[in-house]
Structure formats: C-alpha cells, structure tokens
Amino acid sequence: MMHELVHLEYVSDARDAKCNKLFVSNQANNKVFIDDLRQHRQKLMKLGLPDETITNTYNSLFKGINRQIYNTPIDLFIEDKLYDEFEELRPYQFLSLYAIVSEGIKATTDKEVLKYIPPTILQQSKVLNLVIAMQFKDLFGLDLIPNFNPSGIETSMAKKFYEEFYEYRDDRAAGEEYELVENWAKDLKLEKYFSLVDENVYRKDKTFDSLLEKIEKDPFGLETNDPEKEKEMREFQKSQERIGTNIAVVMHMLSALQYFKELPKSKVKEIAQEIALQGTQGYNPKNNYRLSSIPDKVFSGYEILAYYYISWKIIAPEILPQLQLPYDKEYEIALQMLEKE
Prior knowledge:
two-stranded antiparallel sheet; 16 helices; globular
C-alpha cells in the first residue's frame, strides 16, 4: 500500500509541475510486437502449440514486458524512498522485494518456461529483473543475482541501468523518472511497443469533439488494422443475427429512453462520451460495467450496449450507423412501447 501511495505522490508531483506522462499502448503496438516474433511463432508451431495458444501467450508477454519497462525504473525510486524514510516498514519491504526477485528468477530460469519464451523477451525481462536484484542487494545485503545465471551482456546492461538510476537518485526532479523509462526502453529496443505521452496533451485530445471526429472517421479502430477486433465484431454481429430481435435489449432501451428523457442534452453528451471512451476496449455482453457519470449502477453487457445506442441516437444520430450496433429493430420496438405509456 505504501509503495502505491508513493507512486501516487510522484504522479501528483509531476502533475503539479505539468510534466506528468501517461503510458499508452494499443493494438497497433501489440501488432508490431507479434510481427517481431514471426520466426519464433514457427518454432512454437513445430512444438505443436495451437495458433490460439501462441497468440494468447504473445499477448500476455506483450503486457508483461510493458509493465516491466514502465514500472522497474519508477519502482527503484519508490523502494529507495521507502527504505530511507520508513524504517519501521523495512521487514515488510524485505519480504516484498525478496518475493519479487524470487519470482523474477523463476520466470527467467525455469526450463519449462524457457521452451516457450522468445530469447529477446527473456533477455529484456532478465535485465530488468537484475536491476531490482541489484537494489535488493544494496538495501538488504542479500545477493540473489547469481541465481539468474545472467550472461555478461545482461549483467553489463543491468549495471548500466542501475548506475543511471543512481545519477538521478539524490536530486530527482518531478517527472524525471519517465526519462529512465524512455532511455531503458530504447536500450532494450522496447520503445516501439508503447508511447509515453504528455498527460495534458492526451487529455485534451480526448475531448468530445475529437472523439466525435474519430468515430466519424474510424468508429471501430479499423485503421489500426487489428484483425482480432475485426473478428470479434463479425462474430458479435453474427450472434445477434442468430438471436433475432433481442428482447433484453428492447427492455434496456426502454429504460434508457426513460432515463435520458429527464436529462439535459449536455448530461446525455457526457454519458455518451464516457460510454464511447470505455467502449474503445470493446464491450462484451457477458460482462458487467460501471460508469462514473451514472454512479451506483452496474450495467449488464446488453444494458450498456442499449445505453450506448440510445445516448448516441439522442446527441448524434447521423453517426449511429457507423457504430455498427445491430439494434435498429429493438429501438423501434422500444420507442413504440414508450409512446404507449
């Protein structure tokens, strides 16, 4: 908990200094990652792994290595601060870091794991784990570095990173930790899998008008050439065709029409914007969702889709066909039911 609170403190400091950055990674970055592993995919296919299993494995590795490159430099500053300023927490800190380093050892040396992990990803991950092990040794005197069986190149690069951390350690200015994220990513050739963007610029780009323009041009992110997302959309639409008129959606639309009827258009726009932003990750009818603009309410999957449809029908009906929500019949029925009340 203290670790995350310090992380929040750093973010707050960077925001005050107007230099906070957000770690952004999308399907386009994921595609680059998977394309880079084409040759390794052939190896896994020869081992008899199904294509779906390989893709899922690569998706997990993509998320994992991105978490590592973002968190490792920042975590060094956090753990250093905790050690210096909160002596009473050191026993817990020892146990926490010991567990983290031990997990890193297992993840990068286990023979069963090594059969399936691309060598480049393995090396990148091991270097970042070694940096944490170096700090653990400095803070608590326990040397677990040999347990990684590191190569000379891996050890050399980890030492370079740790020395760079020390250069920033004593006089780190707000937001400077992001410089290490960027520097280390370039050295490890991970920079093409994410972007660090200025938070103020990013938030400004997420205004309603820019979102509207984006949806008009590319309502489902098809310009990113994401085959998985296209496949999901096709399967979703086919499933709705098999169902026919979806009575659950009709009832949810009726509820949405009644709810939005009492709201000013500005509030409807706010809700529509939030649903659209959240929907960039895709909506699954089997899941539940929440909206900050409609607190204390849990939406079923079909319910959020109904509210998605109705909110945009109210504020920008000309864009609705581009959302490809197959619920025009449901809307007509819900509208008739509302008129009869």
